[in-house]
Structure formats: structure tokens, C-alpha cells
């Protein structure tokens, strides 16, 4: 018999909502407020006041007397600004003096207020003061010496807790560049902001601005001076003044390294700790020899050493001095790495390794993550020739470091940036600015050079229009498509996609509808529902860099041909450049889709009572229930201690309710459904367009969903469900939180996975919500997204029958997906696993911890970068939590348990089900107190047509992986 395995949809996106985002923002009114602040000479402030130590406030001309402890003077906030903070947790112009430290750290909201302060500083730098356009000249509003004093107190309070430092190393170092505490300034950001402002006002400067932003070096000073001399007659006095400021900033930024000042800063640390001695030795030696390669290597080492041992310093003030020193050292690193220009392959590999190490020292990559990938980047010898295979592995690993670094920036700031971007589009530039001010900028450039070099020997060359940095593009699964290219910047959640278009996303939406092709900056993980659907259906799918996405913007809206080969090289070309072979792929004959017909003749609709999950197995799939329930019942028999109890509402109960009279219709619900499809077929025969037919069907299905939501459940069914709830789950309905999982006959087929298309309800407790949830799950196959996927790939999408699996919730610490084969890397004997913290891990596109697990080891393919996650309290609903990334998710015992369960599944499942299925399995699982729980399993379905396409094979180069390349080979 053919064997199909169970699948699951977890609708978790709605639960990943920060408490500060819980209330929709009044975007229009906030925009008006911002414009008002910009034009008001006091900006967002009301007046200057004295704030006394006893809590009283006095007029600006009436200082706080000494007898009550004195006080400080600064502006007070306008009432409408305070309302933004109270109602929407928005803080546009924080004055730090007198601000409560706990409130500013804002740990309960993922440090939102601190991040907003940083973002507001950025907006002020790129938009002439932003909300303080005029009030930046409001004398006395902010007292710099009081702000700095507060900053020192804040960090000394913050750094008393070593856990805060370990958990938020990247965020803390970044905040030091923005929060005043030592007369500091952020020269790199100022340089980028000033050049951006000039280019916006004087477009001819754009080329110079791109150079300053993308490949900065000391020669930029001369470039700016020469540009200014050529165009001085065209400048307004304002632009001339901005050039003065830019030149001054650049000269400060590129000034010779002052090791004496750095030593003086180090001497402020009172401890004679080993760490301090190590840094002092470096500074003494560094002042003698400033060779770029040597200095970059030593700084990377010192930065990692400081990060590893900084908590050995006992005084918070010493930790603050050392963190400030790391920022000084990073600035030197950013200067000197531009001077290190490798001329040979060996030197380039050393530079990539060194800069990758520096990402760990600066917080872009966690120390544990560096240790995990260090063996794949640190060459045993830089004196031996390297094979193409070794170099490609080095390239993949180092490219991963670039992506992990960018993901760290996004994980820390994306929530705040997306929130602000609703009313201030310039906020989008903040993340890019932070990436460009880090070691990731030159590391990415170096990795691109390596990719271009390897291309010459491997033949694995991308041809993506004429964009730069093509080595950053990599195919995820094969396929080809033709259609309009749509490049989406920012959040994709409100984008209405089209089945005939090709989309480039910063990150894929959680509920992606059918599209012709996709590319993503944030891949999420290899086994998310979006990635599995793309792989299953032969939708070309590739990853690219943020820079690649921006380069593709100029082609957005144009028709293109897009292909990903079996070996991962990517082609995007304009419609006019398609050759005859590519045009033939989209002829009517060639483009006809091989649709799957779902068998319905075996369905048993006479089972109208609830089933104990223990009483069914895989043989019930497609007959009494969908594959989820049938195969979880099978797993319960195989692994009784690792699968929960469960109840099943079979197809028959659904059909019994659908046979009832439908309100405002002369027949039953089922009759209405079949009538709708019959009318659609007639429209098609009468010559209606596919769009007209689809619109009619979606309208009818919307009406049906509404009717099902109002359906009266039969009393006999409710009584039956309550009784079985008590007997199987050992508690009355309403006392045990449960999952309600849609389980249709049209998923987990041999050629169609259906992953993620229908509804699963999380951790429902109340009886009323469970009964309502049953109707919602029955209606979910008739949603637009679910229907469109079925309509496109199944020949009989109208014959959908939902059953429902009801299982008690397990409050797992982390959960994810296991594929019983290596995907993209590894072999069919390996495992690919992806885990995120909390419930619903990895399936919804989170940036999950992904590993390739072999019989003897495991390799980190990407770390977790999802800052928010959910837990499942016994009271029902969900509890939002915030993650930090200093610790890996899975431990060695977890991985050992995963290996063991995978081995048992591979061997025992076919035996117990008499199955001839020989492919890989897609398993969802989780850990609670290190106990492994199995939640579901399905066949891992890949698109055979894409893999065997003659065209895709023709563009897949033959690679001689054993070909050796000398390390002395020149890099050009």
C-alpha cells in the first residue's frame, strides 16, 4: 500500500505580537503630530522647568533650593507626546535626565524604549533633527552634562548584572554609541548621514555617497574634496556648509590611531585583572607596528578575548570602560580592514577567517556559534592547495557568517523599525546603517570576491540581471518561472500576491499564497512551511543579500525569466533576453500542470461518533480521518510515551453537519458547496475569464465560511464529545487546554504536501471556544489561500473533507522540525533539523537553529535569530516571551534522542504499516524538560518534475570538486 504521513498547520503568526504592538497605531494622526513637532520651535517639548530632588517642579526662573537637595533643569514634554508614550509606548524625544532606569531599559518590551532612543538619534541625523528640526536649537531643553551623568549612572546600574551583559552583548555595545556617557560621538554614522543628506539635496553626489556607504576608505576624503572643487559654483550656502561638516567628520574618522589615548582610557580601569594586562600588551605592541593585516588579526583576537572574559571585572565602571574600548578598537578595525587588500587566494581566506572571528568579538555572532563553525573556517594549513569542494564549503560557511551577522542586527531592531516605518519610512534605513557600520560590510565584500574567484573554477555562476555581488545569491530549490518581478522592501504581511508573479522579499510572509517564484533575504529556515511548499511544488526559490534586493529594485515591475538549477545556480534575465528553449518552457503544451487527483471513493462517512486516537492507525488515513490523526495514532502505538492522548472528529461528523439545512439557501451546506463548483464550471464553459471564475468561487466560499461559523452543532455530537473528553483526556472539557488541528483528505499526499494551508488553533481551554473552534477549523479549507493552493495543484479541490485532531497541549521549551535526510547539504542518511524556542517552532518561517546531523556529529547551518516566542500556560492562550541568543537551543542529549527516534521511524514505520514508501519523513517534535514529544509526521515531498527537468539539468554545470587550486593563485 502507499503510505502517507501526517502533517500540521500551526497558525502562530498572530501570537508573535509584542505587548507594545497590541494596539493598532493611529498612523495618520501620528504623522500629523510629527509634522507639527518639526515646525514647532519647541518641537515635542512644552517649556523649560526645574526638576527638584524632592519631586517638585519649578519655573525656569525659580531654581530648586539647596535645602531640598537642588535639582536639574531641562524641558518638559508636551501632553500629546506623553500620550504617545502612555497609549502606544512610543518615545520620540526622550530626555534621559530623571528618566527611570528600569523604564528606559524596558526589558518587558524587548528593550523597546532604549532602541527607540537609538532610532530617534538616527532619524535626527538623516532628517535634519527629525521631530526636533527646530527645537534642536531650543536653548536649555537638554543639558548635555546632565545627560552624560545620567548615562554613566545608567550603565553602572546596568552592568552590575553580568547576565544582562552576556545576554545583550551586541545591543549594549551598540547603545554605547548613542547614549551620552563620556563625551562620545559616532563618527561613522555621522559620515554616512552627512553624505546621504548631501546626495538627497545634490543628486550628482550620489555616486560618491554610494562609495562612502559601501566601500569606505581614506581616499574618500580626496574624492569629496575634488568633487567639491568641480561643483563649488553649483552649491547653495547650505550645501557648502554640509560639505564642511562632512570633511571635518571624515578627517576625524580617518585620523591616525592614537594609542596613547587608548592606553589612557585603559588606565581608568582600576583592576589589574589578567584581561587588562592582555589588552595593555596589545596596545603597547600595536603602537610599534601598524601593518594592516597584523593589526586586524590582533584586534579580532583582543575583541573576542574581551567578550569572553569581561565579566571577570568586578566593578561596573570597569566593564563600562572596557566596553567603550571595544568600540574604539572596532573603529580601528573598520579602518584597517579596508587597507588589507589580499592579492592571493590564501590571503583572502585568512582575511575572511579573521573578519568572521571579529563578528564574534563585536557581538554579531555569539561565541558558541563561532566555536561551532570555527573548524570549517580555520584552515589546518594555509600552505596546501585547496580543492573546489573545500573552497565551496568555506564559501558557504563564511557566507553564513555574513547572513547571521545581518540577522543579529534585524533580530535586535526589526520590531522597532517596522513599527516606526508605519509613520516614518526613513526608519527602514536604520538596520542597513548598523550593518554598514560593522565588520559585516567588508566581510561580505571579501566573501563575494571569494565567490567570484571560485566561479571561474567551478562553473557554478549566477546570472542575475547585471547586479553586483552575485556570489551572495544561492538557490534553495530548483524550478523555473516567468512573470513580473516584484521586489518587496519591509514587512510583507499586507502584500497581496499574484500567482503569475515572482516575488523578492526581505522575509517571506507566514501565509504565502501561490506565486510563480520567490527569493528571500531572510530565508527563515530550510523546513518552514513556505520552504516546504516551494520545494514540493517546484517553485524556484533562492536566497540573496539585502544589497542584492536593493540592486533588483530597478527591475521591479518588469517581466523576467527566473530559474534555479539542480545545483543551486540562479538565472534572472529580462523577457527580451529569453532564448528559444526558455520561451518553449512556457508554451501551452509545456506549461500544463501535472495535477494530482485525490481519491475519495474510500471515504467512510457513516462514522458519526468521536474516535479515541488510540483506536486508529495509518490505515484510517483518507477513510475515517485525514493523515494527521491516522498517523499520530500510528505513532502512539509505536512510541506510546512520546505521543499524547487524543480525540478525533472524523469526516463523517463534518459531513453529517454539512447535510443540515443552510440558512438563506434552499438546500444544505453541502449542496451549496457543490452548487458553487457547478456554477463555476458553467461560467468557465460559457467563456468567462479565469479571474471571473476565481472571483465567483471565492465569493461563494466566503459565504459558506460565514454560514459554517454560525452553524448549530448537534446536541448528540456535543454530548458525545464531552463524554470522550472526560474518558480519554481525563478531565472535563474546559479544564484541559487543547490544540484543534485541521486534518483534511487533501494534504500529505505523495505529490502534494499541503503544509501550512489549513487552521490549527493553539492551547484552547474554554468549552465555548473549543466548540466555536471546531466550526472555524471546518471552515478553514475554504479560505482564499487554502483554496488557491488546492485549485492550482489538485484536479478535484472541491472534494475536501476535514476531520479534526484534538490533543492536549504540551508546554515545550523548544520545538521544531526534523527531515530524515540532508537537505542541500549531506546525504539521505543524515538529518536536517530546525528548532526555535517555545511552541510552533520552525514551521512558520522563524529564523531557527538549523543543523545537519550525521551519525557521528552535527553541524550548525544557521543559529536561531527569532527574538520572540510563545509558551502555552495551563490557563489556555499563549504567553509571549523574549529570547536572547547566547545559548544554543539544542543540547547534545536532545540531538542524541533525535538520532534515535529518526532511526526508529525509518526502520519501524514502514514495517508496521506495510508501506512501500521509501522517501524521507518530515517530523514535528518538541522538548519539555528534555523529554522528546512527537506531534506529527508526513512524507517529505519534493518536486520530481523540477529535479528531472531537461532545462534545469542543462543549466546545472558539471563541477570537478576534486580540482586543486593553489593558494598562491592571484585574486583579481
From TrEMBL:
The keyword Chaperone does not apply. The keyword NADP does not apply. It comes from the Bacteria. Keywords: Pyruvate, Signal. Pfam families: PPDK_N. Residues 1-22 form the signal peptide. GO terms for molecular function: ATP binding; kinase activity. InterPro entries: ATP_grasp_subdomain_1, PEP_Utilizing_Enz, PPDK_AMP/ATP-bd. This is Phosphoenolpyruvate synthase. It comes from Dokdonia sinensis.
Amino acid at each position: 500500500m502507499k503510505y502517507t504521513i501526517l502533517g500540521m498547520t500551526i497558525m502562530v503568526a498572530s501570537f508573535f505580537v509584542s505587548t507594545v504592538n497590541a494596539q493598532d497605531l493611529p498612523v495618520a494622526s501620528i504623522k500629523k503630530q510629527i509634522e507639527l513637532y518639526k515646525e514647532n520651535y519647541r518641537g515635542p517639548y512644552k517649556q523649560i522647568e526645574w526638576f527638584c530632588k524632592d519631586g517638585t517642579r519649578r519655573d525656569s526662573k525659580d531654581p530648586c533650593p539647596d535645602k531640598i537637595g537642588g535639582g536639574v533643569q531641562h524641558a518638559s514634554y508636551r501632553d500629546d507626546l506623553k500620550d504617545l508614550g502612555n497609549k502606544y509606548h512610543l518615545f520620540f524625544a526622550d530626555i534621559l535626565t530623571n528618566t527611570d532606569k528600569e523604564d528606559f531599559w524596558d526589558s518587558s518590551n524587548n528593550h523597546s524604549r532604549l532602541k527607540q532612543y537609538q532610532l530617534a538619534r538616527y532619524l535626527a541625523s538623516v532628517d535634519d533633527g527629525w521631530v526636533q528640526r527646530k527645537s534642536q536649537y531650543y536653548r536649555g531643553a537638554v543639558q548635555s552634562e546632565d545627560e552624560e551623568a545620567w548615562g554613566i549612572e545608567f550603565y553602572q546600574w546596568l552592568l552590575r548584572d553580568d547576565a544582562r551583559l552576556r545576554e545583550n552583548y551586541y545591543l549594549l555595545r551598540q547603545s554605547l554609541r548613542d547614549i551620552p556617557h563620556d563625551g562620545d560621538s559616532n563618527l561613522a554614522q555621522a559620515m554616512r548621514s552627512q553624505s546621504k543628506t548631501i546626495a538627497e539635496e545634490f543628486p550628482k553626489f550620489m555616486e560618491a555617497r554610494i562609495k562612502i556607504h559601501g566601500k569606505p576608505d581614506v581616499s574618500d576624503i580626496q574624492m569629496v574634496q575634488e568633487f567639491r572643487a568641480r561643483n563649488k559654483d553649483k552649491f547653495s550656502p547650505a550645501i557648502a556648509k554640509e560639505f564642511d561638516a562632512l570633511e571635518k567628520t571624515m578627517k576625524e574618522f580617518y585620523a591616525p590611531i592614537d594609542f596613547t589615548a587608548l592606553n589612557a582610557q585603559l588606565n581608568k580601569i582600576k583592576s589589574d585583572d589578567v584581561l587588562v594586562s592582555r589588552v595593555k600588551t596589545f596596545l603597547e605592541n600595536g603602537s610599534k607596528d601598524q601593518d594592516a593585516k597584523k593589526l586586524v588579526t590582533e584586534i579580532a583576537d583582543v575583541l573576542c578575548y574581551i567578550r569572553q572574559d569581561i565579566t571577570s571585572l568586578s566593578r561596573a565602571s570597569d566593564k563600562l570602560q572596557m566596553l567603550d574600548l571595544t568600540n574604539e578598537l572596532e573603529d580601528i578595525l573598520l579602518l584597517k580592514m579596508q587597507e588589507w587588500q589580499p592579492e592571493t587566494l590564501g590571503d583572502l581566506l585568512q582575511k575572511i577567517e579573521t573578519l568572521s572571528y571579529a563578528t564574534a568579538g563585536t557581538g554579531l555572532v555569539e561565541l558558541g556559534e563561532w566555536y561551532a563553525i570555527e573548524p570549517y573556517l580555520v584552515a589546518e594549513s594555509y600552505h596546501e592547495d585547496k580543492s573546489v569542494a573545500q573552497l565551496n564549503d568555506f564559501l558557504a560557511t563564511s557566507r553564513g557568517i555574513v547572513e547571521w551577522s545581518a540577522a543579529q542586527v534585524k533580530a535586535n531592531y526589526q520590531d522597532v523599525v517596522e513599527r516606526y516605518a508605519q509613520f516614518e519610512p526613513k526608519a527602514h534605513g536604520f538596520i542597513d546603517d548598523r550593518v554598514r557600520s560593522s565588520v559585516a560590510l567588508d566581510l561580505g565584500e571579501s566573501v563575494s570576491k571569494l565567490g567570484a574567484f571560485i566561479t571561474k573554477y567551478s562553473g557554478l555562476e549566477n546570472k542575475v540581471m547585471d547586479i553586483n555581488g552575485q556570489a551572495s545569491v544561492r538557490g534553495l530549490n530548483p524550478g523555473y518561472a516567468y512573470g513580473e518581478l516584484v521586489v518587496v522592501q519591509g514587512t510583507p504581511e499586507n502584500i497581496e500576491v499574484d500567482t503569475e508573479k515572482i516575488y523578492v522579499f526581505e522575509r517571506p510572509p507566514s501565509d504565502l499564497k501561490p506565486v510563480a517564484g520567490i527569493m528571500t533575504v531572510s530565508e527563515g529556515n530550510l523546513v518552514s512551511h513556505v520552504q516546504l511548499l516551494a520545494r514540493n511544488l517546484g517553485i524556484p526559490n533562492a536566497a540573496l543579500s539585502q544589497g542584492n534586493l536593493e540592486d533588483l529594485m530597478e527591475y521591479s515591475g518588469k517581466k523576467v525569466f527566473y530559474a534555479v538549477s539542480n545545483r543551486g545556480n540562479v538565472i534572472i534575465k529580462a523577457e527580451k533576453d529569453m532564448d528559444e528553449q526558455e520561451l518553449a518552457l512556457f508554451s501551452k503544451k509545456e506549461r500544463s500542470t501535472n495535477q494530482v487527483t485525490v481519491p475519495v471513493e474510500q471515504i467512510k462517512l457513516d462514522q458519526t461518533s468521536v474516535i479515541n486516537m488510540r483506536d486508529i492507525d495509518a490505515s484510517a488515513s483518507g477513510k475515517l480521518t485525514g493523515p494527521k490523526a491516522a498517523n499520530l495514532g500510528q505513532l502512539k502505538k509505536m512510541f506510546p510515551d512520546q505521543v499524547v492522548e487524543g480525540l478525533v472528529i472524523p469526516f463523517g461528523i463534518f459531513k453529517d453537519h454539512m447535510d443540515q439545512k443552510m440558512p438563506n439557501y434552499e438546500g444544505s451546506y453541502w449542496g451549496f458547496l457543490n452548487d458553487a463548483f457547478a456554477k463555476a464550471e458553467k461560467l468557465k464553459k460559457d467563456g468567462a475569464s479565469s479571474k471571473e471564475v476565481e472571483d465567483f468561487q471565492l465569493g461563494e466560499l466566503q459565504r459558506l465560511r460565514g454560514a459554517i461559523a454560525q452553524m448549530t452543532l448537534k446536541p448528540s455530537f456535543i454530548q458525545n464529545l464531552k463524554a470522550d473528553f472526560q474518558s480519554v483526556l481525563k478531565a472535563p472539557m474546559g479544564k484541559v487546554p487543547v490544540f484543534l488541528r485541521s486534518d483534511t483528505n487533501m494534504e500529505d499526499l505523495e505529490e502534494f504536501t499541503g503544509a501550512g494551508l489549513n487552521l490549527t488553533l493553539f492551547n484552547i481551554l474554554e468549552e465555548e471556544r473549543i466548540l466555536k473552534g471546531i466550526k472555524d477549523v471546518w471552515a478553514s479549507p475554504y479560505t482564499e489561500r487554502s483554496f488557491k493552493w488546492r485549485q492550482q495543484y489538485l484536479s478535484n479541490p472541491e472534494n475536501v473533507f476535514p476531520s479534526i485532531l484534538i490533543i492536549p497541549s504540551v508546554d515545550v521549551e523548544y520545538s521544531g522540525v526534523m527531515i530524515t535526510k540532508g537537505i542541500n547539504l549531506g546525504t539521505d542518511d543524515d538529518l536536517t533539523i530546525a528548532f526555535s524556542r517555545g511552541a510552533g517552532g520552525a514551521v512558520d518561517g522563524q529564523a531557527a537553529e538549523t543543523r545537519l546531523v550525521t551519525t557521528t556529529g552535527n553541524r550548525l547551518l544557521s543559529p536561531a535569530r527569532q527574538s520572540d516566542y510563545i509558551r502555552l500556560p495551563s490557563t489556555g492562550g499563549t504567553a509571549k516571551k523574549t529570547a536572547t541568543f547566547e545559548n544554543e537551543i539544542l543540547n547534545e542529549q536532545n540531538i542524541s534522542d533525535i538520532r534515535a527516534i529518526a532511526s526508529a521511524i525509518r526502520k519501524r514505520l514502514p514495517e508496521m504499516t506495510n508501506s512501500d514508501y521509501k522517501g524521507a519523513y518530515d517530523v514535528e517534535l518538541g522538548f519539555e524538560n528534555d523529554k522528546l514529544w512527537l506531534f506529527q509526521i508526513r512524507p517529505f515531498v519534493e518536486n520530481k518534475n523540477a529535479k528531472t527537468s531537461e532545462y534545469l539539468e542543462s543549466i546545472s554545470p558539471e563541477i570537478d570538486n576534486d580540482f586543486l587550486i593553489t593558494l598562491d593563485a592571484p585574486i583579481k
